[in-house]
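Entry type: protein chain
Record version: 2
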Amino acid sequence: MNIILFHSTYGLRPAVHAAADRLRDAGHQVQVPDLFEGRTFETVEEGMAFQEEVGRDELLKRAVLAAAPYSDRGLVYAGFSFGGSVAQQLALADEKARGLLLMHGTADIADDAAVDDLPVQLHIADPDVFEPHDWLTAWYLRMQRAGADVEVHSYPGAGHLFTDPDLPDYDAEAAERAWATVLGFLESI
């Protein structure tokens, strides 16, 4: 499977490369673009300030340009938190998308979004301060209405970025369960 994996608001850090290596070890081809052009951050607040400075349109443009050389092959769009929101926007706009893997984050969905049984898998902490239950319920219903085949996996008690071993949110047990489920999902596509 061809996968493009977008980083979180912390930037392209070692955990993202480790995740890409895990996917490569399972036989997938993985691209890991750096939407922040080398910048990494110690806090969510710093990363969000940088995102605002650069602008959402510019970050999406960078993501589109990063995906363009591979999109004809039919990509699985994937991302962590902020990167998940980017992946979602690109996957819903790419008629050749093979799947959407969201780790710790979602995005708003355009009213006219439409896909043909796009496989979507979301892994989310429960509760998650960035993805409240009401938001997730509305997101799920809108994704289904758009035509996606959605699976949601929640991890009670885990922190927001629970798969990142370098952050306080890390939960080893939840991370391993998530990765086992992710690998199964990718095999099913």
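Comment: Strands lie at 2-6, 29-31, 75-80, 99-103, 119-126, 149-156.
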